[in-house]
Amino acid sequence: MAAAKEARSHSRLGQSLALSGFLLFTKINCTLAQFGVDQVDAPPAQPQFPGLAAQNLDITNTGGVIALKLTCPTDPGENTIVRGSAPISQGRETCRDFRVLGTCPTPVAGSSDTTGLYTARYGAPPVGKKVYAQVNQFVDGWESLPTSFWAIVPASA
User: Residue 23 to residues 2, 8, 49, 88: CA-CA distances in angstroms?
Assistant: First the structure.
């Protein structure tokens, strides 16, 4: 409960509240369990998160084969979480419905191919739809604030 006094909820409408001991315990251990790490009884110290490797979402359509890649000039490491949303209309400005797709794959030539993660959950996105991705890091059960990216599926090139 003492550690929870320092932990804050994510800001909603400009307000951020202290978590209860139970909520902090649940928050940390659910993240650890989801990624196959042993759970803890006492929360570890809140970490300083390194810079996020993912910089952009790029969608290509080559001969009808759609690929979703995150631009990653540096290695995202094993603790970068990728979340995605189902394809939505191009006109939608925001998306709040994300699902965990997995951890960010190792980048090759500056891009991390997330196509397999995305299509396993949602299938191939249709041409003309907007796809949102959210990326953040987890360290010892703590999660950094997510960064969102989006791209529109182009017509076949």
Answer: 12, 10, 21, 32
Residue 132's CB: how many other CB atoms inside 10 A? 21
Amino acid at 148: S
pLDDT, tens only, 3-42 = 766 666 665 566 666 778 888 888 889 989 988 889 998 8
- Its domain, for residue 10, covers 1-46
Tell me if 136 sits within 8 A of 146, measured CB to CB: yes
Instruction: For residue 146, tell me if it sits in a domain.
Output: yes
User: Are residues 104 and 65 part of one domain?
Assistant: yes
Residue ranges in 38-137 assigned as alpha helix (H):
115-122
Residues contacting 135, CB < 8 A, separation 6+: 52, 54, 70, 76, 80, 81, 82, 83, 104, 146, 147, 149
